[in-house]
Fold diacetyl reductase [(S)-acetoin forming].
Amino acid sequence: MTKVAIITGAAQGIGEAAAKRLHQDGFKVAILDFNLEGAEKVAQAVDGIAVKVDVSDREDVYRAVGEVVDQLGSIDVMVNNAGVAPGGPLMAMREDDVNKSFAVNAGGVLWGIQAAADQFIKQGKGGKIINASSQAGIVGNQGIGLYGATKFAVRGLTQTAAQELAEHKIAVNAYAPGSAVTPMLKASAHEIAQEAGQDDQWALDQFAQGVTMGRLAEPEDIAKVIAFLASDDANYITGQTIVVDGGTIF
Ligand code: NAI
């Protein structure tokens, strides 16, 4: 039977690449995003479905997952990929930055874990949950400290959910990308370039410094790891965060 994967934040960037890769691997893919128009375009490209969601709203996440189940019958994989990236030094962060970034990046992952796990438990066959952390969630990085804190939180949620859900045969893992060239990274590069009076390419080159492989990631580099974690080849892996950063030296 065709397996079903939900990917949040899949209207662009890493989520879009993951949708394309999982489609190639034989999954039926549900594209969940705040941006319905973008989600519909990707859904068309992968013969999948698009559902609008705000991952920071628990009820909305349950509704969206329910819609996927109504349309596709069941789910096998949940990729909690949607995220936002507040930039700037910690001293510049205010309540809005904290509330929004934690609500989307950590809250969104928790609601995704809950909605998927409830459905997996109902189905009784287990399942796989895959969460977006970041290299910034492995070590502190000046300039993106608040974002990093939300991504440290994702690793904590991943480890604990893996322990709490193992009895239901649910595996929970995370991926931690280095800098991948997506609309999110390009927007950060643009901001940094503006501040430094440089062009965007200069800022992208700064991101690539310290990467052993000497280049930024393409979204497809991250999608391959998501596909591995979604596959049967990863059946004995849980509670882990896989770093995909081209060997970054800190
Ligand atoms: P992106 O900004 O290009 O795409 C994110 C998608 O999430 C967008 O389609 C957006 O509409 C959606 N989204 C945002 N808030 C949402 C919400 N509340 N509800 C539903 N959808 C929402 O981001 P990118 O670069 O593709 O990143 C994907 C994930 O990977 C994020 O969690 C990000 O933090 C993480 N990541 C990305 C890195 C990079 O260098 N691009 C590095 C490390 C982690």
Notes: Strands lie at 4-8, 28-33, 49-52, 77-80, 127-132, 170-177, 241-244.
